[in-house]
Structure formats: C-alpha cells, structure tokens
C-alpha cells in the first residue's frame, strides 16, 4: 500500500473515530447506532463495518485513540514541575487537541468521565493519565480535582462553541485563559 493511500485511510479512520466519539458523548454509547455513525461520516453501514467490524470494535478504537491523545498530553508536560506553567501547558495542549478532534475530546473531557468512581469504565476510557498530566498524582485533593474538572469542562464546551461559530483560532487564547482561571493562577 502506498504512503499516500495509507495516510488517506488513516485520515478517514480519524474522522470516523472523531464523529463516533462525538455521537457517543452526545447520545451515549448504548443509544448510538452504527447507522448513525455511518450517516455522520457519509458512509454506508456496510462501508463502516468494513473498517470497524462491530460497534464494540468502533468503541474500542475510540477509547484507544482517546488514550493516545491523553498520553500525548502527558508526554509533553511530564518533565515540567507542578505549578501554573505546567497547568497552562496542559490546557494549551488539550485545547489544540480539542480543536483538531472535537468529538474525541468532548467524550474524553465530559465532566462525568473525570468524576467516575472507576475511571477505567468511563465512556472516554481511563482519564487518570490526563488528570496526572497536571502533576497532581493519580488521586488529587478534592479541590484540585474539581478545578481540573472545571477547566476541562470549560475547554470542552468552549471549543465546541468556537467550532460552531467558525472561530476556533480566534477564540483559542480566550479559551485557554478561561480554563486557566479555574486554577486561580495569575495571568502571564
């Protein structure tokens, strides 16, 4: 298979995963049908099933991609000391990812996923690594967890609003500032 064909297929799969994640976030996994995902990406149901042989295979691919994005956030900040600079770097990375993958990040960043008693069973997969990106450890203090959840909720809602308004780049600095305000850090 040529490099161009492989890249094109990967781009198609990324689009499918992002749309599926967005539908899972909006309607819940049980209420999202393969037909709804296929319609959202402009494929026939058999065409979608050719790429992902079952709804469960699609869900697993969504969770796997979500976890890859979370690990990417962590890898970009893990060497930084905890504090305002690291918090801002996490937020900026998450905002950039959310703008590129709004469906995946709306599923991952849904406030309910961060407060699940067992994060591994959350719809967006295990979000502990994303929480740990802030340098708070796997189980931060309740106030810190609430601040992280507030920041992610703001990012999720505002990035989707920016997409709907057609202004993701223009709104980016404001989204970052609002999410950072959740931590109470002074602005740079």
TrEMBL record:
Q: Does the keyword ATP-binding apply?
A: no
- HTH tetR-type domain ranges (all copies): 10-70
Sorted alphabetically, the keyword list is:
DNA-binding, Transcription, Transcription regulation
A Pfam family of the record is TetR_N
Q: Does the keyword DNA-binding apply?
A: yes
Residues of the DNA-binding region: 33-52
Name used for this protein in its record: TetR family transcriptional regulator
What organism is recorded for this protein? Actinocorallia herbida
């Amino acid at each position: 298979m040529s490099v161009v064909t492989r890249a094109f297929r990967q781009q198609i799969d990324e689009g499918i995963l992002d749309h599926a994640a967005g539908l899972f976030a909006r309607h819940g996994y049980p209420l999202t049908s393969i037909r709804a995902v296929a319609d959202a990406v402009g494929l026939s149901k058999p065409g979608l099933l050719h790429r992902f042989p079952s709804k469960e295979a699609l869900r697993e691919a969504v969770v796997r991609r979500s976890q890859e994005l979370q690990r990417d956030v962590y890898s970009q900040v893990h060497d930084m000391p905890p504090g305002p600079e690291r918090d801002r770097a996490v937020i900026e990375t998450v905002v950039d990812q959310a703008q590129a993958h709004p469906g995946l990040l709306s599923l991952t960043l849904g406030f309910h996923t961060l407060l699940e008693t067992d994060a591994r069973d959350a719809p967006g997969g295990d979000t502990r690594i994303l929480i740990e990106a802030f340098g708070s450890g796997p189980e931060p203090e309740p106030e810190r967890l609430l601040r992280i959840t507030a920041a992610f909720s703001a990012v999720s809602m505002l990035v989707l609003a920016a997409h709907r308004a057609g202004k993701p780049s223009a709104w980016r600095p404001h989204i970052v500032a609002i999410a950072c305000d959740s931590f109470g850090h002074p602005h740079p």
